[in-house]
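Q: I have 490 residues here and want to know how they pack in 3D. Can you give me a structure?
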Amino acid sequence: LLAGERALAAHAFEDAAAHLQRALEAKDAAAPAHGELVEPRVAIDAQTAAILSGLSKAQASLGILREAMANMTRAFDYYESEGEPELAVELASYPVVALMGRLPERGELVRRALALAPPDSLAAGRLLSEQVRPLAFEEGKYEEALEASRQAIAIAQRHGNPALEARTLAVTASIQGENRDWSPAKETGLQAIALAQRVDDPWSEALARFWTTSAFLALGDAVEARRIAEPAVAAAERVQDRWLLSLAFYANSAVFRSQGEWQAAREFIERRSSLIQDGAAVSPLVRLEYETGDFSQGGIYLERLLALASTAGATLVEVGRAGDVLAQAGYITGDTSRLDLAESLCRAALEWHVRSIVLGARRSLALIAVLRRDVEAAQEQYEALRSEQASEVGGVITQRILGLLCNAMGRLDEGAAHFEDALTFCRNGGFRPELAWTCCDYADLLRSRDNPGDQEKAAILLEESLHISTELGMRPLMERVLSRREFLKA
């Protein structure tokens, strides 16, 4: 137990988990063979609770989330029943970073702990900060999550505790980002980074850097996104929390993917995959391989992603991600054989209460409608997406999707306006892969509209798309552009 606690303090979570698992087995009169992980059969006592408490923290930092929450709940139950509210509150305050939908029980544990903490205390502030993400992600109570954040920050400021304020700002930026409130997410994230650096809190800094990077990309500033993303790895490495490390790697891969720097992006994606095997690790690999024309390898990753989405424990987040990638792969290849599956996955994801997942599903359903030339479905998705004015990077830009939908519906002047917005966004932000696709898709619309000057402009756009796609090695788009160019010549 002592060795485990020392390892925890040093952020050596694998060592901590090993020591504490041995301690747990030593408490069991019939220790399992070969180091199997099983719950002890002895009745829980103070020492067992301490072991479970430390083990749950190590497991949470290693991304072993289900086991972490089970052990944390057992220890919490003991402390609560034995009249040890301080220990129960301290345990429930331990920061747990998890993907949406993975820990529905987290919010309930924090809620129980809040009933034990003195109102307006720092302990209550820490718990309110921990409650922000479960409220927004697991329960779909975004406004209540923002209110919990405000209360935690107010407590931090009254007690003069900038560390709590930094942590709360970081988790608030995360829910603002998932809700696609990008300008508030950027400002909140920048505040969190500055404050975290001042108090030397790498945990809060790493989390804030991920969401601030995402915000700058979404708002069209790739240069600033890269500046924010790069130090995230060093901050996360200091903490050695696997989820934070995976987010830092993902942030950097997103920046490089947006610029078409495929090799650098692949290296960061693979580093993330070595830590966490989930849909968020696999989906960027699928997109990258399809963008660069390795359909064979992309297909292998795609099947892995679909397998993850079909497991019993898959959340609607993972289901939606699989549908999203499947639709994008279909658009790049022109293969419509799996659109029914993509549609079913995306429509299931529409039931989720977080805006980012719903928006992703809508954009994918829009691509499916375009591929099927389904005017009625295109109309449905256009109306659903029309209110989403902000362009986003990370796969498909919303304005380009709106332009494709308009082309499918025959509303060509409206579509041209959307494509012009997409061109401006991509050029200003330096998002070259998306710019190349926008040029090609816009040229298709202009060829169909055939107003005076449209054919000439289409030819110029195709030349730009061909230049970018050739330079970046985007073979599927190169071939598509060449076929369009031959058509214009004819």
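Q: Anything worth noting?
A: Confidence is low (pLDDT under 50) at residues 29-38. DSSP finds 25 helices and no strands in the chain.
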